[in-house]
Each structure stands twice: as C-alpha cells, then as structure tokens.
Amino acid sequence: MTDTTVRSRRKGQREPYTRLTRPLVREAGVLVPASWEEALTRAAEGFRHGVAERGPDSFGMFSCARSTNELNYLAQKFTRVVIGTNNVDSCNRTCHAPSVAGLSHAFGSGGGTSSYQEVEESDVIVLWGSNAREAHPIFFQHVLRAVRRGARLFVVDPRRTSTAQWAERHLPLNVGTDIPLAYGIAREIIHSGLANEVFIGRGTEGYADYAAAAEPWTLAETERVTGVPAALVTELARAYARADRGQLCWTLGITEHHNGTDNVLSLINLGLLTGHVGRYGSGLNPLRGQNNVQGGGDMGAIPNRLPGFQDILDPEVRARYGQAWGREIQPRYGWNLTQMLDRMERGDLTSCFIIGENPVQSEADCLHTVKRLGNLDHLVVQDIFLTKTAQLADVVLPATAAWCETDGTFTNSERRVQRVRAALRPPAGARDDIAILCDLARRLGHDWHYTPEQAWDEMRALAPNHAGISYARLEQLGGIQWPCPSEDSLEPSYLHARLWEQDPERRGRPAPFTVLEHRPPVDRLSEEYPLRLTTGRRLDSYNTGVQSGGFDSPLRRGETLDLHPVDAEALGVAEGEEVLISSRRGAITAPVRLDRGLSPGLAFMTFHFPDEVDVNVITIEATCPVAGTAEYKAAAIRVDRIPAAAPALIS
Ligand SMILES: Nc1nc2c(c(=O)[nH]1)N[C@H]1C(S)=C(S)[C@@H](COP(=O)(O)OP(=O)(O)OC[C@H]3O[C@@H](n4cnc5c(=O)[nH]c(N)nc54)[C@H](O)[C@@H]3O)O[C@H]1N2
Ligand SMILES: Nc1nc2c(c(=O)[nH]1)N[C@H]1C(S)=C(S)[C@@H](COP(=O)(O)OP(=O)(O)OC[C@H]3O[C@@H](n4cnc5c(=O)[nH]c(N)nc54)[C@H](O)[C@@H]3O)O[C@H]1N2
Ligand SMILES: [Mo]
C-alpha cells in the first residue's frame, strides 16, 4: 500500500447533485458562474491555443455513451475535423472494448451477432460473467421468456448472483479462470464427438492447433484450476454443443481483466467449435454497458474507426470521409482513453474535452487519474451534473439529458437503432449537447448548424451499414438493426451467415480459432493481501452513482464489503461492522455484509457510492494490451478490523 490515507466518509445518503443550469469557469482557482458567451469563448480559446502551441494530437475527446448517436457522430467529427486528431474514445474502453476487439478479430465486425428475439427462441443460453438480472434487466426478460419456453440457462460467475439463481446450472469459477474453463468445455465437446465438423470445415481456420491446445485441459485439470466441478463442465459442454440453437452471452466478468480480449476470444472459440454463429437462433453476444455505448462506437467515437465501423487505416475509406468533411483524416489510430490518460501524465496530451464521463470516479486506481487530469492545461467538462470530474475543469458546460430531454437515436446491444424523443423540458439554462458542440465548432472556424436528423443523414450518407436507416423508416418500423445498406429492404437479424456458404468465394475470410494462454490476474494474492476482490453492479444503482445516488430508494443499502461468512468468522468481523480494506494502491473503509453466494476467499463491492466509499482507490490499473480495459474484476486485498483508536485516520 503506497498511500496510507484512508478514503472514506460517513456512510449514508449523499447530498443529491443538483442539475447544472449555468456554465462555470475557473477564476483564481475557483469555479464561478459565467455567461454562455464567456464559457464557450474560454472553452474554444483554450482548445485553439493548445492546438496552436502543441499540435492537434495534444487534444483528447471523451465522448458520451449516454448521449445520442448524433452527438457521438458530431463529437468524433469535432475531434477529427475541427481539431484534426483521432484521439476520441468513450467509456467503452472501461467496458466492452475487448468484445469489440475480439469480435472484429474473428469476424471483421465488432457487433453482437444475434438478436433478442433469437435469444427468446433458443434452446440453450449461457450467460458468462454476466449478472443480467441486475445489470441488463430488460434483456433478462427475453432470457426468462426463453426459459419459460423450456430453454436451459447456464450461468458462469464466481458469485451465486440473482441471475445465477434463475439458472438451471451455475458454474462458480475462480475469478480469472475463464480461459481454462473454456478450454475444459472445448475438450469435452471434442472428446464427446460433438464438434461441428461441417462448420469448422467451412467457416473457420486453425482448428487443429486449437484442439491440440485444449488437450491438456482434462476435466480434472479444469476442475483443479477453475474450481468448477467436472460434472458441471461436462453438462454445459454437452448441452451447448447439442443445442439446435445456442446463445453465448457475456459481459464484464469476461472483459474487465488484464487479458480481456483473450477471454472474449476463448468464448468465440466455443461458438466456432459448435457452429453456434451465423444462423438464426445461435449467437455470440456481448451485452453492452451504457445505453448508447454500442452506438457511440458505431458512430466513430473510438480512435481507430470512422462512422460505420470503418478502419481508419484504409486509405479509400479515409479519402471518402476526408473529402466529405473537407479535411484530411490522419492516417493513424488515435490514442484510446487509457492511452490518453497515460499521455496526460507524460505531458503530451494537454487539453481535454470530456462530455458525459466521470473518470475521476470510474477509472481503476482513480487517485492516479486525478493526478493525470491535474496535469492538463485546459479541461472542459460538459455534463448534466457537477461531477467530481467537472470539479477539476477549467470550464463546465451544462447539458440536457439525452435519454429524456433531447431528440435523436440510440443503438442497443442487438445493433438496433431506435429513436428517442424529448419527453421532458430541460432545466432552464441547460443546453442541448449538439447545440453546444456546434457553437464551439463555429468559434473555431467551422460553420456548424445541425439538427439531430441532419447529423444522422450526413452520417448515413457515409456509413454503408447505416445507409438504409432513415428517421422516417425508424418511425415506421419502431427500430432497425444494422447492417442496413438499403432503404428498400431489411437484412437478417443475425450476422455472418456467409460463413456457412458452400462456395468459398461467397464465404470470404474464415473465422480463426485462437490459441490462448491462461494468465491469472495481475494483482497476486499473498500473505499480506490474501483475499480476491471483484467489483460490479447492483440493480438499484448506476455506475458512479452520479445519476442514481441522489434520491431515496427503499432498495438501496449503500456500499458494503460483501464477504463469505467463513472469511468473516476467520477475520473476527460481524455483519455491519466497519472494516479497513487495503490493496497495494490504497485503503478505504466500508461495513461488512455477509453473502453466502460468494465463496470463501472472494469479496465483492460495487463502485456505486464513490462519494462515501471510493472503491476505485483500491482497484488495479493493469490493462488489456489489445483493448486497454482495466482489471476491475480482480484486486488483491486485505481486511482488518478497525481498532478503537483508528478513526482519526479516516479523512
Ligand atoms: N443496475 C445497473 N445496470 C447497469 C449498470 C449499473 O451500474 N447498474 N451499468 C451498465 C454498464 S456500464 C455495464 S458495462 C453493464 C455491466 O453488466 P455486468 O457485466 O453484468 O455487471 P458486473 O456486475 O460489472 O459484472 C458481471 C459479473 O461478473 C462476475 N465476475 C467477476 N469476475 C469474474 C471472472 O473472472 N469470470 C467470470 N466469468 N465472471 C466474473 C461478477 O461476479 C458479476 O456478477 O451493466 C449496465 N447496466
Ligand atoms: N470498480 C469498478 N469500476 C468501474 C467498473 C466496474 O465494474 N468496477 N465498470 C466500468 C464501466 S463498465 C463503465 S461503463 C464506467 C462508467 O464510467 P463513467 O461513464 O465515467 O461513469 P458514469 O457514472 O456512468 O458517468 C456518466 C456521466 O454522464 C453524464 N451524463 C448522463 N447523460 C448525459 C447526457 O445526455 N449528456 C451529457 N453531456 N452528460 C450526460 C452523467 O451525469 C455522468 O456524470 O465505469 C467503469 N468503472
Ligand atoms: Mo460499462
């Protein structure tokens, strides 16, 4: 533990954040109210100055996965055209970037391959590292409909979550052992003669190496490493392989690891092995995080893709967009969010525009993030609340809330674009995200005037997979899945049917199996830090709690350290007792809650109450080298009783 200050405040209901209704600017170190005119001028001048002094790559944009596709389209265009860099990203980096990386590696496209309707009509559903009952409650209704129809539900999670309680079988694996478990399942499928030879022969490559790599993962070895009883491994393997329609859905239990992309690939391997992809009812689906994080990436608010998920390194693509936008696109990938934070530390990235993100509380090892943001010359935050991140800004711009106060579209985890409409009047003084962005662009020499529909139409004229999705059609059909290249037709609800084609020409690039190595969590358990902490969500709260923390709810019980009763007893702590929780990064305090759904040695916390218990002070920033996502799901901690004299420590 390097920082001995304990970060916790009195538990209980925090003061609600009040909606931002006036711009703020920093004067003599303090944020003070300002007119829109002054705040916008300061924001724009800061960016202009930064670019003039240090070039466009000294700028970074964090775009908002809560806001509309139209805002995300314009945020990436602002970055690429008004500023001239590809440094644009969003919370997808903390979340499903490994899913996008893994799926594009295998199939050339980063979207989930199936649809909710197909999930309802499938025979076997595997929810892997996903607590959908609490984190995807709407999607979970589709799962339950399938279960009522007789589908078999398997849940792979170290904790017996409320999702697992609905499952026919729960596979309680040790944190960070997903690759061994996937290999054990694969070997069992292969040895039972259940591999889908037709699909493997037609649609894949690299099978022999993969099968050889699975060979050491006998049932005994799999059970030893993962902790999952061999009988459950066999049962899942056979059920999934024999299913006529099998759905494999995953979320952060898979992605939020130092090897998140490898974890995703280990599940894709299972889909390829069984042929559960590329046909109706079978699919490989990441259930995405924030309401429009799928859309944000589709719109190009990521450093390596232009709208429509088109690769920036493709010169033809770049030329097309460059021509339409009147500025050449840089022929290289920008920095992702993780890299941008690193570049702040090194002094290379000096001005930053954060729209609807709260990295001060959401980043792993967040005290480090605060230091990095503190290095910036110019920070502009556009949010609906004065978050802890906004409190560090030079200029704060009050926005309207996309989900209820603005017009536009969102895209969900089944790639379905849907209209959203302003249903509430925004508080006086707040301005629409798009209007603010246009105003800033105008101050920087670009005559931007966009309605949401104009932004959308400009985007779909450039992005072939969105070309057929007009507002009129969305109105008429209630929602349309991409790809949708034509206004006259609809594509099937699932992707990659080509992989089943007999004709190699039509089949195109085969999907590769990937040979993977098991690499356990970076934060090793030791005598000093003997417990495994995993972090995640609860139904009653949302992310850093900015939007969900400020009102009373009979459901919400505040932050706790969830422990198995066996550990609590060994530590001599009782339910409700406030304890000291330390990792190699820092320390916090929280009351203990007993949970028999955990296994001994495993603890759980959320990150929903950071104003009271800032759990990201103790999480580790070890990141996936491919996707940049941090290992939020595996920290090593110790828990100590707080001696009577210790409260003086607590700040
Ligand atoms: N109510 C609510 N809903 C939300 C959110 C919210 O804050 N509140 N946030 C939204 C966002 S941004 C996202 S990204 C999604 C996230 O949705 P989920 O990923 O479902 O949520 P988490 O609770 O973070 O993690 C899921 C599970 O991963 C398990 N897990 C931990 N380590 C491992 C491991 O090594 N292997 C496996 N297989 N599993 C492991 C945890 O025990 C946990 O139950 O939810 C979205 N929906
Ligand atoms: N320990 C731990 N930490 C985690 C995770 C974990 O599992 N464990 N999960 C990670 C994941 S998956 C995610 S996605 C991140 C989330 O990280 P963040 O995105 O940084 O956190 P949120 O609390 O979702 O903050 C979203 C912000 O958007 C603002 N906002 C909402 N709507 C609008 C709008 O329409 N316009 C504008 N301008 N602003 C708006 C909200 O007020 C809020 O400040 O956290 C990550 N952090
Ligand atoms: Mo997320």
UniProtKB/TrEMBL annotation:
Domain Molybdopterin dinucleotide-binding: 531-635
Provenance organism: Streptacidiphilus alkalitolerans
Membrane-traversing stretches: none
All copies of domain Molybdopterin oxidoreductase, residue ranges: 19-442
Protein name: Molybdopterin oxidoreductase family protein
Keyword flag Membrane: no
InterPro entries linked: Asp_de-COase-like_dom_sf (IPR009010), MoPterin_dinucl-bd_dom (IPR006657), Mopterin_OxRdtase (IPR006656), Prok_molybdopt-oxidoreductase (IPR050123)
A Pfam family reported for this protein in Swiss-Prot or TrEMBL: Molydop_binding
Keyword Transit peptide: no
Keywords of the record: Iron, Iron-sulfur, Metal-binding
